[in-house]
Amino acid sequence: MGWPIRRSAAWWALSGLTAWIIILTASFGCQPAFASEPKRVIILHSFGRDFKPWSEYARLIRAELVRRSPWHLSLYEHSLYTVRLDGNAPETPFVNYLRDLYAKHPPDLIVSIGAPAAGFVQRYRHQLFPLTPMVLAAVEQRRIQRMDLTANDAVVAVSLDFARVVGNIVQVLPETSNLVIAIGNSPIEKYWATQLGRELPPVTDRLAITWYNDLSFEEMLKRAAALPPRSAILQIMLYIDAAGVAHEEGTTLTRLHAVANAPLFSYSDAFFGDGIVGGPMLPVAAASRQTADVAIRILAGEKAGDIKTPPIGLATPRFDWREMQRWNISARDLPPESEIAFRPPSIWEQHRWTLIVVIAGLLLQAMMIIALLWQRYRRQAAELESRSRLVELAQMDRALSLGVMSTSIAHELNQPLGAIMNNVQAAEILMNRSPLDLEQIKDILSDIRKDDARAGAIIGHLRGFLKKGELRLHDVELSEIIDEVLRMVEPEAARRGVEVSVQAGNPANVKGDRVLLQQVLLNLAMNGIDAMQTSLNERQLRFATAFVGDTKVEVSVSDTGSGIAETALKGIFDSFVTTKQHGTGLGLSISRTIIESLGGRIWAENRAGGGAILRFELPLTKARAP
Prior knowledge:
alpha/beta, Rossmann fold, 16% strand, rod-shaped
């Protein structure tokens, strides 16, 4: 008996699993077809797509439906124009048109905007779409009370409190004595004129009420331009004027605002920002969101008649700052908790963080200026100290260079001194003769004077070269400095078998210190002479100048030695870098410092035929004529 029971249980389990597979397969198989079918929604306008405030309701409802709908929506919009034709136009052709248009694909939902559209869909429900749920949106609750609602009707009503709207005008403009009611003359406008008349008695004892419902719109404009002082205009609706002309309400408000000599007010915030002062108004955005919410719930399967929403009343008062300024309305006269829009924020409100950043920046800048002034003081002191050290270091380098050249200097001094000694000895011999040869003695004394002057010049030049002093810039001519350096190095060059030559162009004046430029050229020349110490080639040291464009001059000192290793070219002017066995590594470094302090640059390169070229550029004191 156990085995049949187990077999029966297994069979039932297998049967259940199979059924679930069939159900799931059918569900997934049908889902694409179901998902591809859109939700069809008809939006029915009372006056037309471009009539404020209803156009704003429709725009916001469409946007909310598209944003929140989990389904694909097909939105269709139609307008009921009979209201603009005094309400006497036949509606049957329009009913037939809608019925035939949606015969094959009935809508899933109808959203009516405004009381005329709501009344239309209710009157012709059974001829059009008897089973289609409806949302009656933007209908004033007074009109709802007169409608026969069904289980397929959901209502998003608004509640308009005219007494509060008029009371706001009296509060913000306490001196108002004349209130103009701008309203049309169509049946729906006559209805609202009656309703407004019933709610005005509490304020009629202090206000003179002027009605424009029996005027053409052009006549309204003329009268609005010539209103007496302390007047205000309340526009209710202007669809059809007394002349039977239909108007779009947003356009009428714009034209009225352009000519009126009194402030304008309205009951709907759809006109806010277009010329009305403001106050408590019906919030179009809130009503539109609530309508979209009800529509989504109905499309999701909830029964329309079960959805109940409270009427949307006047919102917190809002006022246009621009109109307040125009009509001298004080913020102190506004109702409590009022909102003011379009008011330019104060500088602090508008640029709070910017001002904080600016103030912080100014404080930081002040601190930085103080720090920079302190740094400038320290830098100037350091520059003076550095310049003093540079002069001292340059003097030491000159002394070192002249020490290396001491043999040549001694030889150069020995020549005039030896000549002087020989002339003195010759003079002594002539003095012992009788008779005296005065002419020869005069010649000897002249030679002694010349040799003495020559020796004195050599010593004076060396003393000036070694003299310690401040760095003073003057207008100097480079060819003269090269000639002076040439005379200094010629004895040493001759002793080492080096031929020295100069290739100079036109005179080139630069701003510099004569002694320091001599030191630079002397350093470059002595480096070239030292580089040819072991050269077996012809030893040649060459000075050359050339113009670089019209504003610079280049000086080069070349030799025929072994050249500079490529790895040492870039750092040859660094401190304590030398290619000599007993060099200090300061000569070229000092030379670079001197040239850069004069606004120039210095560099080294190897010659194609062997040897090295050391060059420097300096700016001319005056641009060379082309």
